[in-house]
Design brief:
heterodimer; A: mainly alpha; MetI-like fold; 12 helices; about 0% strand; B: Rossmann fold; six-stranded mixed β-sheet; four-stranded antiparallel β-sheet; 11 helices
Chain lengths: ~300, ~250
């Protein structure tokens, strides 16, 4: 008996896809990829449009004086927003110094200690509600809680208002990012005899830090452009102020004041202010990212 | 130097699941003891009871007596103290991803506040040499993340990390099950060398591995310790029919 080679009939094999099948899959693949690319463009288009429009409207009014001078009185040409740039820096620094540590600490509690506990659930719920509080309401609340008792507007009150707006975002991202740290990594630390609080701070938090930094930057960028909470707290100021207990200028406030004015010159300055505000937010977020990535090791995840 | 472990009437639960039932066992000092048995039989729970890692799970609890040398670990010591005396190597390598190789090895010391540079340097070299990893990583100690090593190297780094805190007992929960044969044989060689200085308890699914590295072997089934004897006796002439069925591959 002669040996016969095994017959291979690819098209009859039910496990093998037919040519029509393959073609259908390729079409589906192209459609889904196309939709994903389209969605990306739809997301990026408004950002690009805003940037270009700001450049078109605002770039021509930018000059050295914009960054070195305080606003000119009505009727005078020129002037800048130097005091507002400084004021925004002061308020945002205050807000970050107060909001980020509190937000991270609450996130650590939620993820590492408060799972399933009443207090944990209460904090999580409060954070979510706080996230939905309109910013004007935040402004009025801080007005009655801080400004009224002190009898004056202040940079500090502005910082507090923005800090409270940052907390829910920072808390929830910290919790989410800590939840992605594998149990095995925590067990490695606990198994070495590291106490639980130390494991939470030095191992879990450190492992999750890239995501937490992103969350802090999101919160920062969000409040950096807020106007409403500052109207009743920081109030604004036409002059230089370095004091935390006095009204202070801020870019969004200055933009608002100029934008609703009847003067063309001020409208142009408002556009320039908006451009500078966006640029400063982008620069600070990029700087933090570069700084945070510098400490990374080769091959780390 | 290692220390012996005496276990009396140990019971453990996960929620309402009674995972360990009335375990009595003496693990001799400075020997390797293997624990075998089918998946879900309680071997891992048992070793996690020996360094009180079991109780890190909020629904878990344990009763009974575990004596490490003279110390009753459930009554006379805190979990943190016990875990410093008992090193643990897990089934999958679990390096700290944000730390360099150097920091991974001395993490047990550094995270407990130890900062003396000279002693840290010495500990890194000694532990990595004990774990047979020194030659492969000595040039990248502070440059590379612990997570950048291969799986087998990561597991040896985790062994070095456990040894760096000078434990008396080393618990290994299937330390080679995620590794290739070459890395596995390196880990086995290591266990062979380390058992003169440490008491080693190794959980394994690989019966040849138990036969190669351990003087004594215990067979677990359904949460009970069926048989505990010298490895030679267990694999040639087991006392219990169920042990014989398991090692000859008739079930499990």
């Amino acid at each position: 008996m002669s040996t016969r080679p095994i017959q291979v009939q690819p098209l009859d094999d039910p496990r093998k896809p037919s040519r029509a099948n393959v073609a259908r899959r390729m079409i589906a693949d192209h459609i889904v990829s196309g939709l994903a690319i389209l969605a990306t463009i739809l997301v990026l288009a408004p950002l690009a449009a805003i940037l270009f429009y700001l450049l078109y409207k605002g770039a021509s009014s930018l000059n050295l004086a914009f960054f070195t001078h305080v606003p000119a009185p009505v009727g005078e040409e020129g002037g800048g927003m130097a005091n507002a740039i400084l004021g925004s820096g002061v308020i945002l620094a205050l807000a970050s110094l107060m909001g980020i540590p509190v937000g991270i600490a609450a996130g650590v509690y939620l993820s590492e200690f408060g799972r399933g506990k009443f207090l944990g659930n209460a904090i999580r719920f409060t954070a979510d509600v706080l996230n939905g509080v309109p910013s004007i309401v935040m402004g009025i609340s801080i007005y009655s809680l801080v400004v009224k008792p002190q009898h004056h507007y202040s940079a500090l009150a502005g910082g507090i208002a923005l800090a409270i707006m940052m907390i829910p975002t920072v808390t929830r991202t910290t919790e989410e990012m800590l939840a992605t740290v594998p149990l095995a990594v925590r067990e490695a630390a606990l198994g070495l005899g590291v106490p639980k609080w130390r494991t939470a701070l030095s191992v879990s938090l450190r492992t999750a830090s890239p995501g937490i930094i992103t969350g802090c930057m999101l919160a920062f960028a969000r409040v950096a452009g807020e106007t409403a909470p500052l109207l009743f707290t920081a109030f604004g100021n036409q002059f230089w102020s370095f004091r935390l207990d006095e009204p202070i200028a801020a870019l969004p406030l200055q933009i608002f004041a100029y934008a609703i004015s009847p003067y063309d010159e001020w409208h142009r300055l408002a556009w320039a202010g908006a451009l500078v505000l966006i640029a400063l937010i982008m620069i600070s977020v990029t700087l933090v990212r570069i700084f945070a990535n510098r400490g990374m090791l080769k091959g780390g995840s | 130097m290692g220390v012996g472990i005496l276990v009396e009437d140990l019971n453990a639960w996960y929620g309402s699941n009674h995972t360990l039932q009335d375990i009595n066992l003496h693990i001799p000092a400075n020997h390797a003891t293997a624990l075998i048995g089918p998946s879900g039989c309680g071997k891992s729970t048992f070793v996690r009871c020996l360094n009180r890692m079991h109780e890190t799970n909020p629904i878990a609890r344990a009763t009974g007596v575990v004596k490490m040398g003279e110390v009753d670990i459930y009554r006379e010591a805190s979990p943190v103290e016990i875990r410093r005396r008992v090193g643990m190597v897990f089934q999958r390598p679990n390096p700290f991803p944000t730390m360099s190789i150097y920091d991974n090895v001395v993490s047990g010391l550094k995270l407990n506040g130890f900062r003396n540079r000279r002693i840290l340097d010495e500990t890194v070299e000694r532990s990595l040499k004990q774990a047979a990893l020194w030659e492969e990583v000595k040039d990248d100690l502070k440059k590379k993340s612990g997570a950048s090593l291969s799986g087998g190297q990561q597991q040896r780094m985790c062994i070095a990390r456990a040894l760096a805190v000078d434990p008396e007992v080393l618990l290994m929960d299937e330390p080679a099950s995620a590794l290739d044969p070459v890395s596995t044989s390196k880990i086995e060689d290591l266990i062979f060398q380390l058992k003169s200085q440490y008491t080693i308890v190794i959980v394994t699914h690989n019966m040849q591995q138990a036969a190669r590295v351990a003087e004594n072997t215990g067979f677990f089934l359904n949460g009970k310790l069926v048989e505990f004897d010298s490895t030679h006796k267990i694999f040639t002439n087991p006392h219990d029919k169920r042990t014989e069925d398991y090692i000859t591959g008739r079930f499990g």
